[in-house]
């Protein structure tokens, strides 16, 4: 029984993740509006705008431990969302690659920020790793492969007791210089034990009350590294090596790219570059379990689950709070990348940096406050400090709250531009403000659109084309559901 009314009993959760490879598309254009999906050529959207297809490693929802198919990697990986006090078992199944030309590796889960034992730490050099039964050696020996599967050698289980509420990240830690930037990362949220404040407060202290929450997961991609891994694998050399972990010399034998040469050319918010952040969330469930998107063997090319001109994944991990089958009081977390809120609401942004560069994250229109960092609340006075840029280093998380009441919506501030005939009509993202009525300027101020973006503005580009990359929009209105 709960100790007092409103306090939840801790749950025992079993979460299933599959590690594999996949494909994603990056907008290779600087059009202002996102393109619509197409069934046409592989690298173009229906309006002719370019997309850049890149090979990734990653994770997808394995549902019950059997659902995922090789090639299903979601970008970013599913969200782990649990409550303080929960006993969480994360089962990782390494299903190998869809691409026969890419290196085959073990994987782990590093629960970044959690106080876990060495044995549950995904730093495989001091703990352990999960190999796959889907590699060139075992694929050529069906008896040995079946024995590998029967023994469950391709599954490992991590345990943690959810302790401090806040915002975290998780990722693979095998050869992290390669596996992280290839896409093996996702967001993690722990909510307060008290049910009454789940989905309403980050920690339960002074200023951390909010009405809506968004995950802002920042990362970057060096396509040269992804291309090298896509076609790099020397299967003959691999087949000659002993089974199990490889030495540096053996790794060098099967791949060539040096990840110290990392130089990003795309920068992402929730796994998408602008303007694709504006697109609706994508349900990955059907794709995760569909082997038909895997291309012809030996080509290293297949369809994957992150399509061209498609929005970020919903982010649900079955068994988490964001699984609709789980009873949950608050609003569910997702990778929604357009921030929408009504006037006089407080918007929580859980900012996470999984990229290799520090990001000066800047929001137009109003100041915001940092109410916590790295799953620890700031002191009450510090929670009141208002800023307009937060520097988020790799491996850091910040919980910031934007009160929409502080956004500018005062007619007199816009009167001059309205007098000049500006500020009405349709903006370049397709939103229609309507005609300007000089006698009622406030009618044009009801909906407001602001950018939030990296202030390293060269990262607000797609392969050098501005605008693109690490930017999203904040839409404030009075009709947001
Ligand atoms: Cu890995």
UniProtKB/TrEMBL annotation:
Record domain Plastocyanin-like: where: 74-193, 329-386
GO molecular function, one term: oxidoreductase activity
Key words of the record: Copper, Metal-binding, Oxidoreductase
Domain of life according to the entry: Bacteria
Entry-linked PANTHER family: FI03373P-RELATED, MULTI-COPPER OXIDASE
Identification of the protein by name: Copper oxidase
Organism of origin: endosymbiont of Lamellibrachia luymesi
